[in-house]
User: Fold Chromosome partitioning protein from Paracoccus homiensis.
Amino acid sequence: MAHIIVVGNEKGGSGKSTTSMHVATALARMGHRVGGLDLDVRQRSFARYLENRMAFLKRSDLDLPTPQLGVLGEGGDPLTPALEQLEQTCDFILLDCPGSHTKLSQMAHTLADTLITPLNDSFVDFDLLARMSPEGKVLGPSIYAEMVWSARQMRAQAGAGPIDWIVLRNRLGTQAMHNKRKVGGALTTLSKRIGFRVSAGFSERVIFRELFPRGLTLLDLKDIGTEQLSMSNIAARQELRDLITEVNLPDVTVNF
Assistant:
């Protein structure tokens, strides 16, 4: 059985597709067989990213490790046949969920061996995980955390293993240090109550927007002729290396 990685929350603009593309491509570049499914049937950012990559490689006559893009089926359960097709050839399957609550997203969470939840480092995104008092006290889980709890219960009833849940603090800025500490403290408190791990994600960088039209990632830059990486690009590669290490997937040794 392939190890299923779900990247999801219920808010757009948190960096889910960027995270999905970089995690999936990093695994492919480390020699693993990787499949991907985009469950956002309207926006399709992750699918477009992979399609852009395949088109760019064809135009440039390049052969770079690339995740296999799966196709959702039709009918009442489009996810199961797509997963069954990918599981024939893949070690890892990454599911990129939409930034809203859908039946497909809910089903994906019940299948997750590893769940990665990118959040912008603010209390606006934190509200998806927990309700807070005006004084900053965590009152209890909110809508998305309750959905993950439901997915965990369904997995337990089916005899499946636990979900390893990692919350990524994306767009960590150097400004507003007081607010950053408050968000960090609230996440640490909540993580102990509802069972997730906290990891630093990606900072806000122009390079991510520039790479999308060609379907490239930070790990591909030298392969397309970029001889010297900027300090920002080097720092971003380190963020990706730290992320893959922190996620701690089975049989994965970070070697980039």
About this structure: The first helix runs from residue 16 to 29. The longest strand covers residues 114-120. Residues 40 and 98 are 4 Å apart (CA to CA). The radius of gyration is 18 Å.
